[in-house]
Structures are given as C-alpha cells and as structure tokens.
Write a structure and sequence with these properties.
The structure is a single chain. The protein folds into two domains: 2-149, 3-Layer(aba) Sandwich (Alpha/beta knot), CATH 3.40.1280; 166-219, Trp Operon Repressor, Chain A (Orthogonal Bundle), CATH 1.10.1270. The chain has helices at 14-17, 20-27, 64-74, 93-100, 138-149, 158-162, 189-192, 196-214; strands at residues 2-7, 32-37, 50-51, 61-62, 79-90, 104-109, 114-115, 125-128, 181-182, 185-186. The chain is elongated. The chain is built from eight helices and ten strands. The longest helix is centred in the last third of the chain and has 19 residues, at 196-214. The chain is α/β, with parallel strands linked by helices and 220 residues long. Bound molecules: S-adenosylmethionine (SAM). Residues 84-87, 109-111, 113-115, 128-130, 132-137, 140 line the site of S-adenosylmethionine.
Length: 220
C-alpha cells in the first residue's frame, strides 16, 4: 500500500515515520509513505501557496493551483484522494479497515484558515478526525496513516487487534500484567487460573460490560 501525504510542513512527519511500528512497517516494505511538500508546485514568486480571503476576514487561505497540481501529479487510477477537514466524515475504525483495501491514498493537509473551497472538486472523500479544530491536517494525516498501517498484514500480529476496541462494536476487555497484587489491587483470579475456556468467557463478558458502562451508544 502507498500513502502520499501533501503538506507544507514535511518535518512534522520525521519522528512519526522513524519510530516503533511505523518505522518497522516501512522498513519491511509493508507500506510506503511519501511526504510531499506541495510548496514546490507553486508557480508564484517566493513559492507562495496561500493568499488573503476574498470578502475579507482573518487568516490565510491555501490557493487552488499548487494543491490541485500536486494532486494531479500524483494521482493514478488506483488513487483515492482524501481531504483532511473538520467538515468531513468523522473517522472511525471501520473506515480504517475500508481504507486499508485501497492501493494508493493521497492525504491532503490543509493549514492556516483552510483552503480555497474549489479544491473540494478535486478530491474523492473528506475526513475529519473529530469535532475540534487543529492548526493543520498533519496530525489527522498521521492518525489515518497509523491506524491503517497497523491493520496491514504482517505489521502486527492479527490476534493483537482482533478483540480490540470497536471491532464488532465492542470495547476491549481489561488487561493486566505482573505483579498479581499491586498495592492491594489484585488481578482477577480467573486470569491466573490457566483455564483458557474460562478466561475467554470472562473476557467476552468484560467486553460487553465495558461497552455497556463506557460506550453504550456502540451497542445500539
Ligand atoms: C484551522 S483548520 C481550518 C478550519 C476551517 N476554517 C473550518 O472551520 O472548517 C486548518 C486545517 O487543519 C486541518 N484540520 C483541522 N481540524 C481538523 C479535524 N478535526 N480533522 C481533520 N482535519 C482538520 C484541515 O486540513 C484544515 O484545513
């Protein structure tokens, strides 16, 4: 799978792509991630990419030309172009599973006040990572890249994400590690029993209880 990220701030991705699971997935060629500074597609003096809004008001607006030129340069028949915007469809784990099947994603990061409205005509999908405003699309691009990459075969063990929160609309069961007693807080006996049938039963019950207690909306 290939993910191209169009951004004005490529350095923001340096640590993200060079640590832990993302780094291993890239080194094993399970995913290819390219960070593209779309400023290089500007044809204006000083590589200008933004301008003041028509009608007045604060902030700078990303111009159409550099972004659309970059999209058209990298787009192929296999591509899905995604605009990161708080006005998009709210991102979920289900969408991560769907996007994992796409061969080539192009993630477009806005910044400043946002982008010229006409850019919307050149993308396939708009995604928001939640109802709050960030300074740019870079963190949303990382969120999407990370959540998809960990689902790609060979990146992490399948059993690691099979029971995870949001699979089958359930939250995960509680997990514990050593010591068995921490300041009087004890690990549930069943987990120390070695009886895997009982452990699986307990975990399923806890998934349901956790979901009822914390995210009842998922069960509707
Ligand atoms: C300050 S925001 C612009 C917000 C825009 N004026 C609005 O109210 O819809 C700058 C950029 O950050 C990104 N962004 C901010 N919040 C986001 C969110 N919740 N999800 C996805 N992208 C977001 C978008 O790319 C956006 O163009």
């Amino acid at each position: 799978m290939k993910i191209d990220i169009l951004t004005l701030f490529p350095n923001m991705f340096t640590n993200f792509l060079n640590e832990s699971i993302m780094k291993r997935a890239i080194n094993k060629a399970l995913v290819e991630v390219n960070i593209i500074d779309f400023r290089s597609f500007s044809t204006l003096n000083n590589n200008q990419v933004d301008d003041t809004p028509y009608g007045g008001g604060g902030g700078m607006v990303l111009r159409c030309e550099p972004l659309v030129s970059a999209i058209e340069h990298y787009k192929t028949p296999d591509s899905l172009v995604i605009l990161l915007t708080p006005q998009g469809k709210t991102y979920t784990e289900k969408m991560a599973y769907e996007l994992k099947e796409v061969k080539h994603l192009i993630l477009v990061c806005g910044h400043y006040e946002g982008f010229d409205e006409r850019i919307r005509n050149f993308v396939d999908l708009e995604i928001s990572i939640g109802d709050y405003i960030l300074t740019g699309g870079e963190i949303p691009a990382m969120v999407i890249t990370d959540s998809i990459t960990r689902l790609i075969d060979g990146v992490i063990k399948e059993e690691s994400y099979q029971n995870e929160s949001f699979n089958n609309n359930l939250l995960d069961y509680p997990t514990y590690t050593k010591p068995a007693d921490f300041r009087g807080l004890k690990v549930p006996e069943v987990l120390l029993s070695g009886n895997h049938e009982q452990i699986n039963k307990w975990r399923k019950e806890m998934q349901l209880k956790n979901t009822q207690d914390k995210r009842n909306d998922l069960l509707k």
